[in-house]
Amino acid sequence: MEPESENTADWAAWHGAYDDPESSLSRRLATVQDRIREVLDGAPTGGFRAVSLCAGEGRDLISVLAGHPRRGDVTARLVELDERLAASARAAAGAAGLDGVEVVAGDASRTGAYAGAVPASLVLACGIFGNITGADIERTIGLLPRLCGPGAHVIWTRNRKKPDMVPQIGRWFAEHGFEERRLSPSEGGHCVGVHRFTGRPVPLGDDVQMFEFVGYYNIWKDEPAPGEQWREWSRRQAGKA
Q: What is the pTM of this model?
């Protein structure tokens, strides 16, 4: 799931920005995919669990697994509220023959959505931290040990708009038993971070809400959403026809 517009949440149209190789979202996706490959390449042999919060069309994990030698070891649950995007992810996983990938159309903000799929070796929290409040970022990080197994990796994203919250996000991860492994250069428009869980896993416990997906337009009221890049690109393409 990704940012809402001021009037309607057309998530499927917004995801079209990933089809533009020049868009910032496309570049961010490529970085996330690289980080996923690195985690898989370095993982111990045997079964590997992954969960993806607000998974959208699952382009990050599904695209990597489709061509990765560890694909048969991976079981994954992708949680996405928008049924159209969930259907797209389900179709992509099926086309790639990824029988271990489960796509759930549900509320990714609730810990209960991951019952039976955790503790995980990889947690994807991409496209979330720029769409929720700072308090909810902190709360979400504090609850991630419920989703993580020993040594699990969390891959997350956040824009670098001022005030840049990436340093504070890093401090919150450290406070909750995570060590920084990779962080995008500060001059990039988006940060892709990787943190490894070094603390003691916590039982999933009762179903609680990790965050409220407020949406890009409500967090960044004076800024155009990244999806505007896609709409402008579409207009340019239409003009060439």
A: 0.85
